[in-house]
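Bug report (template v2)

What were you trying to do?
Predict the complex of my protein with iron/sulfur cluster.

What happened?
Run completed; filing so the output is reviewed.

Input:
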Amino acid sequence: MKELICIVCPKGCRLQVDDENGHTVTGQGCPRGEAYARAELTHPTRVLTTTVRIEGALHRRCPVRTNGPIPREEIAGLMRRLDSVVLQAPVSAGQTVLRQVCGTNCDVVTTRDMEEEG
Ligand code: SF4
């Protein structure tokens, strides 16, 4: 039996997955919990949120995220790629930083406006 916390919504249901019984899922408050548990056991994914360097702005780091889930095993490699990214102010929220990362259709996008340093 494996236990997982569903992260699909803020309710955070505690899921039990019986791996000896065809991955029977219990404890979910809605059907999305079962889908989450099955995906987590077979192909775990995450939305990555982090920051990248920015020049010409008041702050030195700009928050970014993937605009969808990417395979969890790809996250370390994507972080290394993002280490070499340097944005130039101004940027606006939702601006694409990297396109179609990790073999997915997800982009890395900025999550806030950052003006030029006055
Ligand atoms: S199982 Fe449904 S209700 Fe429970 S945390 Fe997941 S999405 Fe929310």
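What did the reviewer find?
The helical segments are 31-42, 75-83. Residues 6, 8-9, 11-13, 28-30, 32-33 surround iron/sulfur cluster (CB under 6 Å).
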